[in-house]
């Protein structure tokens, strides 16, 4: 009897050890949290859209004590996001560096602007979508998106476009995609590249260029003053608020939808536990009043996707972007 008790005790001890090891492994896999300062990396100068969102993230994280370490925003400009992505890749597997960016990472890859492909980023979550508003000066003879299409069908060089900040990017796609779908030879259009959307708008209002495609939120002040007329938006359905009366490209005979989706990524080698922590953190962030108010201000649409869904979405979006850029002769097959 004593021997059986000893054997039973030994068995239970081994069972307890196995359970403890399993529990410890579970904690290790699921219980990661930051213990060093956090950097939110953006690919443009202070005051730009991603910078504004990065600072909102940092403010909410710290004010509501999402976690203990301090948060800062790092502005890494240049190369349409290539500099920021290169900076991030120095911190392989480090969960303390978060890159706030979007569709541009796919365009950069397709155009060969970055040494490392977008597939080396660790998708965490998509947060929201911004759509492109295409506008002209208030006194422009171009009254609608359909009017613009018809003019360019007759002569692709008859209208000039202000593109911020590089050809092939989301702003460019927001107008060129629609023109291409409507039968315009977009390789012949006249494009002037500007360092910011604000500079492109100033040039248009000064009469130096004819049409500017930028994120819809950039047009609100100029719509209020009557200085600009938005002739089309790149969304699938009409947008709310100030843009409820602006027809989509689809409504005007061009089957094109372009979303400048904005998400967050980690460095290559980020662990599943790190991804899970940030995925849950950002899902919590988009439910805060501060974030929802910012969406109203930006005229953005909340479009949260978790890491797995974002990865699949990016694969599909990349295929479309690549084909589009190849046709424009801005990328190789």
Structure commentary:
The radius of gyration is 24 Å and the shape is globular. The chain has 333 residues and is of the alpha/beta class. The protein has eleven helices and ten strands. Strands 1, 2, 3, 4, 7, 8, 9 and 10 form an eight-stranded mixed β-sheet that branches. Strands 5-6 form a two-stranded parallel sheet. The model is unreliable at 1-29 (pLDDT under 50). It has two domains: 38-129 and 259-327, D-Maltodextrin-Binding Protein, domain 2 (3-Layer(aba) Sandwich), CATH 3.40.190.150; 130-252, D-Maltodextrin-Binding Protein, domain 2 (3-Layer(aba) Sandwich), CATH 3.40.190.10.
Kindly report the average pLDDT value: 89
H and E order: HEHEHEHEHEHEHEHEEHHEH
Q: Provide the domain count.
A: 2
**Rg calculated over all Cα atoms:** 24 Å
- Tell me the name of the CATH homologous superfamily of the largest domain: Bordetella uptake gene, domain 1
- What's the total count of β strands? 10
Helix content: 40-55%
Q: Give the helix tally.
A: 11
Query: Helix/strand-derived class?
Result: alpha/beta
Low-confidence stretches: 1-29
User: What does the largest sheet look like?
Assistant: 8 strands, mixed
Distance between the termini: 78 Å
Share of residues in strands = 15-25%
Shape: globular
